[in-house]
Every structure is written in C-alpha cells, then in structure tokens.
Amino acid sequence: MTAIALSAPELAARRKSFFSQLGKKDNPLRIAVIILYIAAVVLGATTSSIGMPTLRENPTAPLGLQLGEASPIRSDEYNAFSPIVLSIMATGAAPTTSVLAAPADLTHRYSSGGFFETLVFFDSSLLYTASFLPDAMVFAAHWWLPALLLFLFLPTWFEQVGSSRRWGWMAAFLIALSPAASWWTMMPIQLIAYTIAGSSLILSAYRRFTAHQRVVPALQCLAAGILIAGLPSFYIPWSLVLGLPMLVATVAWVIAHQGQWKPKLLALGCSGLTAMIFAAGMLWENREGINALLQTVYPGSRRSTGTAQSFALLFGAPGLAPMQDMLPVGINQSELSTAFTITFVWAVLLVVNLNFFGQLRENIAIIVVAIFGLLWLLWCTVNFGERGTSIPLLNYVQPARAAQVCGILGSILVCLLLARLPRKVNWKLPLTAAASCAVVTAYAVSSLQLSYLPEMSRSSIAAAAFAVGLCVFCATKFPSKVWPIVLTSVLAAVPVYSANPLLFGLGDLRDSETAKYLSAEGKRAAETNGVWASDFGPFDTVMLANGVPSMSGLQRSGPDTEQWKKLDPDASHANEWNRGGGFIHFQWATTGEPMTFEAPVPDTTVVRIDPCDLKLRWPNLQAISSSQSLDAACLIPERTLTWSGKEFFVYKFQ
User: Fold this and answer.
1) Is 643 helix (H, G, I), strand (E, B) or coil?
2) Where are the alpha helices (DSSP H) in 421-457?
3) What is the pLDDT of residue 237?
4) How far is CA 188 from CA 95, 294, 322, 334, 409, in A?
5) Distance between CA atoms of residues 455 and 329, nearest Å
6) Closest Cα partner for 559 from 364, 346, 298, 378?
7) How many CA atoms lie within 13 A of 516 on its CB side?
8) Left if phi > 0, otherwise alpha if psi is -120 to 50, otherwise beta: which for 281?
9) What is the spatial distance between Cα 328 and Cα 131, in angstroms, rounded to a whole number?
10) pTM over 0.70
11) Are 407 and 340 in contact (CB under 8 A)?
12) What is the CB-side half-sphere exposure of residue 653 using CA atoms within 13 A?
C-alpha cells in the first residue's frame, strides 16, 4: 500500500499558516457556541429527564414544556444528580440527602462549606446564584457548562499541541454526540471537559511564561490547577479513562517541546503544585465520605480485571439509532451505549500509511493518547485473569465501563492524525480506510441485531455501515475541507438525536402545588433541625429537590454508621444498610410489627418500621408521607398531596 508522505517544510508551513489563520476563522464558531449556551440558559432549556411521569404531580397534565419523552433508564440523573442540584439551589447550602448517609460531596461534586472543595467544585458553587437568579436559568447554566468548556477548549488544545483547531472541532462533536454521552446524560463530557480546560490553560501559561509574562500565566496556572484537582471526583473510573490521558499528554508535550526549561518548570510547577494542594485539601475535607464508601458492602473497594467484551458492544455505536425507538434485550440502553470505538480502526490505518510525522516532540500528544487508548482497549478485549486485579489504576475500572468510553480517546486520536494528512490524498488510503471501517461496523451492528436489538432491520445495518464508510472516506480524502467535518458531525447525531427530551424549565419539581408546599415545609424543618421520611421513592425525589431534610432518600457515598445505629444498635443488619451509590426507602409497618431491613438490589436499602417506633428512635422526626392512610396513635393527619398521579397522606407527630 502506498504511504502518504508529508514533507517537513510542508508540515511546518501548514502549521504556521493554519495557526495564524484558522484560530481567527473559527471565532464565529466559538461565538455561536457561547450564544447557544446563553440562549439555553435564558430559556431554561436542558435535556434532563426530570420530566418523568413519576416526577409529575399529575402525569396527564404536566407543567411546563417538554419536547420528546424522558427516559426511565436515566434514574440516577432524575432521582439523584439533578435533584441534588435543585436541592443546593433551594437551600443555598449542601443538599438534603438522607441524614443516615455520609457526605457525598466528592461523588457528586458539591461543597459542604470546605474551602478547597468550594473552589474545586466551582460548577456546583455557581448554583448559589439561584438566590437572585431564576432556578431554571441556573439549572440550565450548570447543565450545559461542561459542554461549553469542551467546545471552547478542545479546539484550542488541538492547536496548542501542534494540530489544528479544525479537527479539534470534529473531535468535540464526536465526543458530544457519542451514544455514551447521550445515554449517560453527558457524564463522559463532564469527566473530560474540566481536565481539557485545565490542560489548555497549562499550555497557554507555558507560552506566556516563554514570552516573559508573569501575572496572566500565574493566574492561568492557578485556574488550571483548580480544574485538574477535580480529577479524582465524581465517577472516578471514567475520570481515569478520559481525564488522565489528556493531562499526561499535555505535560509530556510541554516537557518535549523545544525551548528553555524555565518556562516549562514555571508552567508545570505552578499548575502542578496548585493541583496537588487543592486535590489534597479536597480529599481531606471529604475523608469521611471516602472512608464510608471504601468500607461499604457495595460498591466498597472492589477491584476489577481486564476481560473481553462483545464485539457488538465495542464497535456497535454507529448502529444504535434504533435504540431510540426500541428497548434492547438482556441489557439496558445505558449499558449498551458506547462511544465511537471504530475510530481506533481508522487511526491504525492512518498510522500505517503516514510515513512522515515530523520529529518525536511534535507528535508526543498523539503518542500519549494512542498509548492510553490502546491500553484501555486491551483492558476490555483481553482476559487478564486474576493478575489483572493487582494492576494499579486499571483495577479501579470495570472493563465494560472502559469499553463504553475508550472510543472518546479514539476520536481524539484519529482527529490528531487527520491533521497530519497532506492537502491532497490519493484514492487508495481513503477507499481502504472507508471499506475497512464499514466492514467492521457492519459486523458489529449485525452482532447487535443478533444479541441485543432483534427488531433492528437489515437496512439499519447497511445504513450504519454506509454512513461510517462515507464519513471515513470524505474526511480522509479531503482533509483540508470543512464539509467532511460537518457531514461527519451530522451523521454522528443520527443514533442519538431523539435519545433525550428537550425540557424547558423545571416542570413539577418547582411549580406544582406539592413542590411549593414541600419547599415551605423544608425551610421550617431546617430551622428546627427536623427531618421527614416517606415510603415512596419519587416522593423522596421531590422532597430532596425542594430542600426537605429527610431520612429516606439518597445514600451515595455510604452510611453514617453512628446514625444508622439509632435504628440498628448492634449493627446486626449492616450488610443491608452499609451500601453506597444508592437509595434508602421506608415502608410503614403496623403498630407492634417488628422492624426489618432488606437490600432487594445492591444499591437499595429498605427499612420496614412502625412510624411511632421510628419517632422514638429519631426524636427529630417531624413528619412522614405515606402512600396509604395510616392509623397510629402518634400520628396527626396534616393534609393530602398528589404526586405521580397518586394521593399521599402527610402526618405529623403528637
């Protein structure tokens, strides 16, 4: 096969010309991104699923405007992530997760008042602006912030490491439009965007230090360190897969770049020292939650080993469009969704056919991203056996989770390589790459049909393979044109364009009569250190969203053991309640019925107890909500509420 050559002078000339012109030419795109962000904020528009029928007062008459349907599979988003955000906005402080739970600041990126976490989790600290801005606008601003940073900083990062902004835009679209990002409610974007922004600021600081500037690069290092300090937060397995490679590639590029060492040491030293100080401070402030999580029965300090994942799971992302209209068999939509791992096949063919890349230092970012990408690809394609559990960092990541997002690294890698193509490419490489990627996609999507999506039509298989082949051919054959990037981005949106609803406002979680009543009661309870409890999960959600202190609800990091011992003094049922990443539910027993504990699924604890007994054990209990009428001597009927289309009875205590 004929190798594609790009001479050193042509590479240097193209880079100089491209950097001096395209950085200015894409200003309209950056302005458009900012305008779209502002428009979404002003309209209070998000793709949240908090418009679920279970989170409506009357599902047949929902409040507000929602285009499309919310997805039941996003329970963590609409029962945990978003209600926590709304709770912070309602209270102006930490969210009202269960009083039986340890703090979950680290796992949900919010501050309980600590100095370091308030700055590191700046995105959640911005929620305090709800004290003077409309809640829907603040919620939308928080929702879209990671996507804004991705599109503003990834093209810049590409240019800074010697590539081109053009392909940085394509990488951003491939990441944002991947099924993994859509079906995991943008989690992969959040887990890479802040690190990309911090990495770009490091590179900016380095160039400014080289130009003998001091104040501005010092401030950039401070901001970069704070952004990067948040790497060990939220969902750490994906932070390792996505964020760490970008940081290492940035550091390696600065070290390898030809130039004086003083600016390098200043940029890396200042940002690195800041990151270490803030990360250490943040982890220290969250030691209670970390300790609780590590000691839980589930998920605990589990370790994983590399195992082979199905071909359909690895390379089937381009064929997941039918999943917007049908449920998969034997797996849910989130577990089946992946990023565009097919980009690794494309990248290999580009590497084989490019015989000139320039000097090693000019390609260090490509090398680092490739090494990390292949490492995680091996983790989910090769059986490592028991020894895999002892490999540091890798053993924190389940191979299925690596399979879902490693294609994001592949997307970045292939875009870095496409920038190395000459302006004119002969027909052989584009045709070979297109055919190879189309065949792999056809086989993977056919496997999807056989294993997970039996109702998928054969025409869908052909369409997915053709779309991949077309995008690969056009982008490889015409690397100096913009339209192949537009085409690829449009076709990448096909598998996910209707996967999320478009919600304007906050629906019934703010504007319903039930929500308004609970908001007022939450303020009264907080003033008297009182708590509530309910026997229905969606009711727990509306209580959390409106700042009602509660016993039922979320236990995300793990239990507060001392608080649980008020219910289970000898901890004989710790196996049922010593769990993290989940929910606490109550069931109301009849008078005299003994208390029981149950863990029907790994992330859920159910306590069945007489409400009068619960009041004796927890004197601060002020009220309960029940899905059925109760008759107990300690209860005083308060009122009835409607939620999820059902009647609920509110009782207070004598």
Assistant:
1) strand
2) 428-451
3) 92
4) 23, 23, 22, 12, 11
5) 10
6) 298
7) 4
8) alpha
9) 43
10) yes
11) yes
12) 18
At 447, the amino acid letter reads S
Give the type of residue at 644. S
pLDDT in tens, 121-136: 999 999 999 999 999 9
393: left (phi over 0), alpha (psi -120 to 50) or beta: left
Let me know: does 556 contact 582? Beta carbons within 8 Å: yes
Q: What is the Cα–Cα distance from 529 to 522, expressed in whole angstroms?
A: 10
Q: How far apart are CA 377 and CA 195, in angstroms?
A: 21
Beta strands in 491-603 (DSSP E): 502-504, 531-534, 553-555, 582-588, 596-598
Residues 276/284, Cβ–Cβ less than 8 Å: no
The pLDDT of residue 347 is 97
pLDDT at 113: 92
In the three-class reduction of DSSP (H, G, I as helix; E, B as strand; rest coil), residue 429 is classed as helix
The count of other CB atoms within 10 Å of the CB of residue 347 is 26
Half-sphere exposure of 616 (CA within 13 A, CB side): 9
Q: Strand 45-46 to strand 502-504: parallel, antiparallel, or no bridges (unpaired)?
A: antiparallel
Residue type, 513: E
Q: What are the backbone angles phi and psi of residue 640, rounded to the nearest 5°?
A: -110, 150
pLDDT value at residue 4: 54
Instruction: Please count the other Cβ atoms lying within 10 Å of the Cβ belonging to residue 21.
Output: 10
Helix (H) or strand (E) segment spanning residue 9 = helix 8-25
pLDDT of residue 2: 43
Pair of tokens at residue 178: 């991947």
Continuous segment of H or E residues that includes residue 540 = helix 537-545
Rounded to whole angstroms, the Cα distance separating 538 from 251 reads 46
Dihedral of CA atoms 424, 425, 426, 432 in degrees, nearest 10, equals: -160
- Chain centroid offset of residue 620 CA: 36
| Distance (Å, whole) CA 437 – CA 348 | 11
281-302 CB burial, b ≥16 within 10 A, e <16? bbbebbebbbebbebbbbeeee
Nearest to 207 by CA among 260, 273, 154: 260
Q: Alpha carbon 404 to chain centroid distance?
A: 12
Q: How many CA atoms lie within 13 A of 453 on its CB side?
A: 28
The gap from C-alpha 603 to its chain's centroid, in whole angstroms, comes to: 19
Distance between CA atoms of 46 and 566, rounded to whole angstroms? 41
Alpha helices by DSSP H, 129-211: 135-160, 165-176, 179-183, 187-210
Count how many Cα atoms sit within 13 Å of the Cα of residue 244 in the half-sphere of its side chain: 17
- List the Cα angle 393/396/401 in 5-degree steps: 115
Q: What angle do CA 143, 503, 467 make, to 5 degrees?
A: 80
pLDDT tens-place string over residues 428-449: 999 999 999 999 999 999 999 9
Positions in the chain short of pLDDT 50: 1-3, 5, 8, 11, 13-23
Q: How far apart are CA 415 and CA 171, in angstroms?
A: 6
Residues 6+ apart with CB under 8 A from 572: none
Give me the pLDDT at residue 542, please: 98
Cα-to-chain-centroid distance, residue 322: 23
By CB atoms closer than 10 A (0-12, 13-18, 19+), residue 537 is: middle
